[in-house]
Amino acid sequence: MVGKGNRKAPVAVAGMQIDYATFRQMFFNETKKCVQTRGSQEPCTRTCASDNLECYVVDNNGFVMISEDPIHTGKFFGEVDGTIMESLIQHNIYKEIEIFDYQAICLETKKDGSDASMIFTPFKMIGWAFQALLSHFTWFIIRMEIHHIWNPDWSFAMPQSPPEVKDYVDNYYDDTYPSEPTGSSTTNDPLIEEFPLKDGSPIPLLPMTYINKTTPKPCDKRVFLYELNDEKLYKPNKQTGKPRPIKGRLSNCHNSECERPFSVQLIPHTNLMLIVADKLCPCFSTKLTIVPTKIEYGPSNETGYCEKLKYNIYRKKPAHCLSYHPEEVEIKLCGGTSGLCASTSTIILATLYCLTGYLRYTQ
User: Fold this and answer.
1) CATH at 48
2) Is 75 helix (H, G, I), strand (E, B) or coil?
3) Dihedral, 130, 133, 136, 139 alpha carbons, nearest 10
4) What are the pLDDT digits (tens) for 220-230?
5) Coil, helix or strand for 154?
6) Residue 57 covered by a domain
7) Residue ranges making up the domain that contains 289
8) Cα 121 to Cα 116, 164, 236, 339, distances in angstroms
9) Residue 224: per-residue pLDDT
10) How far is CA 261 from the centre of its chain?
11) Which of 174, 188, 273, 350 has the largest count of CB atoms under 10 Å?
């Protein structure tokens, strides 16, 4: 650090890369050692290697760096042991910070219907019977041709005309009978004809298959993140001068009304924290997640849409005000959308068509 007085700045930063497996092994090698209390006659058994304790190394944002179970590495500590994490938040060891994301993307799943049948009930059978009766009644009304009551069609007797003589050509065929199959493909798709199957037959036409699709849409999300409170853990012990551990106890967390003690201590010269908890009391562990959730705006949150502009919108102000640009005079306000107006040519053509049909009918 180079500077003058209280003003100092780092000139260079040195770092060291350590293999994670080696770092984890070093941690357990050190925590397996037991420091005997001076004057104590009892054997030292309370280490991270014992079956009664579980140890975690957590960073300043609450993510697990080292755990006895390797699967916990990299996870948020609230997902591993949410009960202890809630206690740390209540004791102000971790500060809860609310973050809003106003440029988030929400994936909404579009579900298609299924052809599977539903569970039949007597009410479903009654509904089917009512639909059948209604369809038969409607078809009966159509067959009776009731519309002739207000719009009758009159018929007149006409003299019988002689039958017309038709000249048939040699290649006459009846349209009512299908022609013989030619063996060609049933589709005009050139790709199907170009790429046949191995046995030479064309590719069969399959029905379109619908799957669930996700539609990305813009939305607002909210998430709670956590930051270590330095003032709570950096208070040194008056005798040793080292950061003192903070001890807590989870009470009435089981039917047996047992208590689960835990201890939190800052690792010197790092942003890491050692958490040691008791295993003997099986507390029900809740889970705290840091997954962003969608903000629903509605009657219960109608002011949230307006209030969101007041929080967490940090942006750089422009250097100067740009109220005019010389090239604005070249902008021509024109639109390509069509207006809601009647087409004169279409009306004229429709009128002529109706008049022509009416004149032909009256002649």
Assistant:
1) 3.30.450
2) coil
3) -60
4) 888 999 998 87
5) coil
6) yes
7) 19-32+44-110+218-294
8) 16, 63, 72, 53
9) 92
10) 38
11) 273
Residue appearing with tokens 């060891």: 93
CA distances from 169 to 175, 180, 187 (A): 15, 20, 31
Q: Where are the alpha helices (DSSP H) in the chain?
A: 20-31, 77-80, 82-90, 122-144, 190-194, 230-233, 304-307, 344-362
63 - beta bridge partners? 76
Which tokens belong to 161?
């005309």
Distance CA 212, CA 139 (A): 39
252 domain-assigned: yes
The answer, yes or no, to whether residue 204 has pLDDT greater than 60, is: no
Measured in degrees and rounded to the nearest 5, phi and psi for residue 277 equal -130, 155
Kindly state the tokens that stand for 101.
């994301």
List CB contacts of 250: < 8 A, sequence separation 6 or more. 83, 84, 87, 259, 260, 261, 262, 281, 283
- Strand ranges (DSSP E) for 206-358? 213-228, 246-251, 259-266, 273-278, 293-294
pLDDT, tens digit (0-9, with 9 covering 90-100), for 255-284: 666 777 888 888 888 888 888 888 777 676
Q: Is residue 314 part of a domain?
A: no
* DSSP bridge pairs for 312: none
Closest to 34 (Cα-Cα) out of 24, 26, 45: 45
Q: Which helix (H) or strand (E) holds 264?
A: strand 259-266
